[in-house]
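Sanity check

After download, print the first record. It should look like this:
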Amino acid sequence: MSEMIRVTLPDGSAREVARGTTPAEIAAAIGPGLAKAALAARVDGEVRDIMRPLEADTSLALITAKDEADALELARHDFAHVLAEAVQKLFPGTQITFGPATDDGFYYDVMAPASRGPFTEDDLPAIEEAMREIIRADKPLRREVVARDALIQTWKDAGESFKAEWAAELPAVEELSVYWSGDDWMDMCRGPHLASTGKLDGQAFKLMRVAGAYWRGDQNNAQLTRIYGTGWLNKKQLDAHLLRLEEAAKRDHRKLGGEMDLFHLQQEAHGSVFWHPHGFTIWRQLEAYMRRAIDAAGYQEVKTPQVMDARQWEQSGHWGKYRENMFVIPDEVPNTEDEGPVISGEADWMALKPMNCPAHVLIFRQGIKSYRDLPLRLYENGCCHRNEPHGALHGLMRVRQFTQDDAHIFCREDQIVAEVQDFCALADRIYKDFGFSYAIKLALRPEARFGSDADWDKAENELRDAVVRAGLATEEYGWEELPGEGAFYAPKLEWHLTDAIGRTWQVGTIQSDRVLPERLDASYIGEDGGKHRPVMLHRAIFGSYERFIGILIEHYAGRFPVWLSPVQAVVATIVSDADAYAGEVAAKLAAAGIRVETDLRNEKINYKVREHSLAKVPHLLVVGNREAEEGKVAIRTLGSEGQRIMSVDEAVAMLVAEATPPDLRD
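Expected structure tokens:
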């Protein structure tokens, strides 16, 4: 008689089944509908293949398409494997390497056979069709555990040098498994996978592009071709995603930034932004807005050095944990002679600051601080530099030089929850002023970290309590805890904004840090007369001005609200006889604080309307002889049909109201 095991289901019920029973068999025993719908299983919390036998007492939850996150992860993983199989079927001699799921699809890194060059986008239609053939064949996906030496030899015999190298370097204690697609193709993988290729929808994926990639991400290694795809559970999801991509392309901040003459980037300053007058107008409006917000919230603005001695970064812990992302500078006068090295190599090192926090601690340490001085809120529009790889740079979204709306709150233990709660309220008001909804998440301790478990317990609980008291730890605000996602010195709350087309952007943070004050010897005199360590709350709302402006450009599709728009109005003439009147109208608007320009060119008015619409000017005030005689203007508003006729004073009042920042409105 077979040995029996106990399987506990999500509703609390339990079943006695023979050891070796599969989740698929349990689904079939429950009912034919579930048997058809079940895609995989969660066994004691771990997602596994539905055909993988159960070997011990366990809790079991069956995964269906309704469990969308798990189902998408499985489908995308399978699409990646099907992609690799299709490429090798079409192009024998292709070597395969890695092929993970991504946030919206999958990719696989491959090396084309020596008989041809790297794969191009011209190859994608044929690869797609080969993938659909594999899906239509409904090939079973079968897991097999393989002895390490045998697997390495199998890869070598097949000419798969990358796979052989990878298998040889995996930990000796790790069980190696492969997945067979039918009986004629296999890949090394931990899994899990769907039961067969036919569980995928052959109309729910699309190969998107190819790119170069290095084996293991090292530019000293062989160059591979990375084939990207997007994969979904059904065609409806795919079509919706492609529509989002189309809309996102229209909103691309790099495209709109050029069309609207906001900024540019160029190789002479990799990852640093050249702000044009219109773009810097947006920056200045954001800076003024944030200064009003932090002044009202009791912050004191400071300014700290760009370059600091490496010993300071060693003491803070950044030199050891973060040095690869820092720009380091020798502390010496460079050699000016033609012969010899530029630097001696013997100088002490300094570094451009990648963050502001150590400098703010140094300000806190100036003079004796009392418990009565706390909380002390130091704010800085701090320019930082991070040595990001060239390939990781992306417009305004990922740069090397950026300015943070950074602040550090030095407070007592009994003040932490109230300070975090106040910050939650401040962030809520600011994000809503820009039209964003958001989710809030708690990033918990990573494996590599400074500080004791007791300190981490305390810090995590304080952030959690503050969100609960602020009324944000709810489904409405997308409250979620993220294990392992905290910084090396502190847990953090994260604000994930949702933009106009449904994309999310992680922007604001607040971190509760007991490590840095200890490492940099920050202290205050307590009520008991003794020295105490303050807790340091690291916080930002925009994150960086560069990235936030990039997000705003895409969120608004370049159609900024009037208060943020670089040019709020253009006065355009129909005939040259109205030039003088246009100047008078523009002068009245400028006197009222409106950012206004005139268009007196000898062009047809329809041409002017079209040009200023493309430039995303909110209001075009058209004037001709009739308007000049009557003291009126014809206003065309971006995104609206027709025009409105009103007096100059009415137009000024309307524009002043719309141009008032949201925090200054009654």
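If your output differs, re-run the checksum step. Summary of this record's structure: The CA atoms of residues 247 and 336 lie 53 Å apart.
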